[in-house]
Amino acid sequence: MGHILIENLGKTYIDRRRKQRNSKDKNRSPGTQVQVLKDINLELEDGEMVCILGPSGCGKSTLLRIIAGFDRPSEGTVLIDGKPVKGPSSDHIFVFQHSSLLPWMTVRQNVGLGLRHMNDKKAMGKQIEEYIEMVELEGFEDHYPYQLSGGMKRRAELARALAVDPDILFMDEPFTGLDYLTHLKIREEVVNMHEFLGKTTLFVTHDIDDALVMGDRIVVLSGRPAKVKLSRKLTYVRPRDFMKEKGLSELREEVFFMLGVHYAV
Ligand SMILES: Nc1ncnc2c1ncn2[C@@H]1O[C@H](COP(=O)(O)OP(=O)(O)OP(=O)(O)O)[C@@H](O)[C@H]1O
Ligand SMILES: [Mg+2]
Asked: Model's pTM, two decimal places?
């Protein structure tokens, strides 16, 4: 299961750089409060892929970290399958913003990281092979990360996340730094995997086209403090084509406009 319910979520950080250092001063300021998220209400159905867009620094990663249990909200609640999130859980796996493969481990060892608890080593090996095959890295099992291209590293990370068979996947700008064609290819693979495995996925991106091509729903956040500006279900069949789907190209223009770009090509 992977149902997520976010109710009245808020997050305020204390900016300690402005905190006065003199501890003897009883009236010293505790630091400036910076409200990042405000009144966020969202519900993700089991198996839904929701793509989150928003201006840089608005709080997208903060929202993901809170839902994943790495950070605590200041207000509101996050329920996963009806239970409040109290901390990180292996049922939900992050695919990090930047390469997170362990450089001293091979592809096989990296993909197997989340499966170390399995007693049946033969079954474990089979599971690792299966996911390496799924991301088309056969033949590279014994390679180290430095021997892989950027796209291959990203695929290995994806295999590592999927191998644990989580209910929920968190992806924070996973395509950053990839060249244009590799980006499109990996995007295609993520869409295929999503259709095949049907995992609840929260995908944070700056790329409006990624969100429109991939998402079962797109959510646009406002600038800080981030609020939900738009939440729209996308029922267009995949693969999606802006040229052929008038509704999709209109929505694309609307989202660009919302994010401050008035002449999108
Ligand atoms: N631990 C922290 N302490 C204080 N402020 C923080 C902390 N983490 C994030 N912030 C602030 O919260 C705001 C939102 O940060 P966040 O990383 O969530 O934005 P984002 O939308 O993911 O940005 P980007 O699109 O650039 O990745 C920023 O202004 C940041 O400075
Ligand atoms: Mg971020």
From this structure: 0.89
